[in-house]
Design goal:
Number of strands: 5
Number of helices: 9
Strand order of the largest sheet: 3-2-1-4-5
Distance between the termini: 47 Å
Mean pLDDT: 92
Low-confidence stretches: 1-14
Shape: globular
Helix content: 40-55%
Structural class: alpha/beta
Largest sheet: 5 strands, mixed
């Protein structure tokens, strides 16, 4: 079963947003599924670096004070994301993380590369997932029951947790890549198309981790 979703926004208003809940997970539980993975990605719109996906299986009867702080990772300050990621790793039944680098993105396209990262994350889960809740998309070729949830990172607790885990993981990767490829400000903007990044890109041209199939990068090739 799947639900269509429109273009995924990068900025959402913080007012009147629902708190992520277990409602979608409970629907799968009523069908007899136990290990239900929430899946999300980060870095899809970046000009450099990988797309990173996370899959998170939460305990069915979880009770923890930090749960009330969980939101879509884009709405959280970095320190709050780090705090929540720590607790998610401590509490989750299983976590999987997958990534696809700029060469795969350029050769396969961003949608296929995102799906590949998600499937990598799913394969890492132990115990394996029995059903999937995915933000933004469904995965063709996956035989597990799955549902694409509109605004899943805002509505579904396991997807929101996956969003946080993926974001923290990718941010750490970009800080390390900044050391290897200095001069672009990767540690600050994490590869997204800020004015600072575009200025550096025009000055230096693309690095090996830039996505040359993306127009701003393609236009900077000298």
């Amino acid at each position: 079963m799947a639900m269509a979703k429109g273009k995924k926004g990068t900025n959402k208003p913080t007012r009147n947003l629902p708190v992520p809940s277990f409602a979608e997970e409970r629907l799968f539980e009523t069908q007899g599924y136990r290990y239900i993975a929430g899946i999300d990605e980060v870095g899809r719109g970046s000009l450099a670096g990988p797309v990173v996906a996370a899959a998170v299986i939460l305990p069915s009867k979880i009770k923890a004070p930090w749960l009330k702080l969980v939101r879509d990772s884009k709405l959280l300050e970095p320190a709050r994301r780090e705090f929540l990621s720590h607790h998610i790793h401590k509490t989750a039944v299983a976590i999987g993380i997958g990534s696809t680098d700029s060469t795969i993105i350029d050769s396969h396209g961003i949608v296929k590369a995102t799906q590949m990262a998600m499937m990598m994350a799913i394969r890492q889960l132990s115990p394996p997932a029995e059903a999937l809740l995915i933000d933004f998309m469904v995965l063709p070729g996956i035989k597990l029951p799955q549902k694409g949830v509109v605004d899943g990172d805002s509505l579904c607790l396991s997807i929101a947790c996956a969003s946080i885990v993926a974001k923290v993981n990718r941010d750490h990767l970009m800080v390390e890549m900044d050391k290897t490829y200095p001069g672009y400000g990767l540690a600050e903007h994490k590869g997204y198309g800020t004015s600072q990044h575009l200025t550096c890109l025009a000055r230096h041209g693309p690095s090996p981790i830039h996505r040359c199939s993306f127009k701003p990068v393609k236009d900077s090739i000298k």
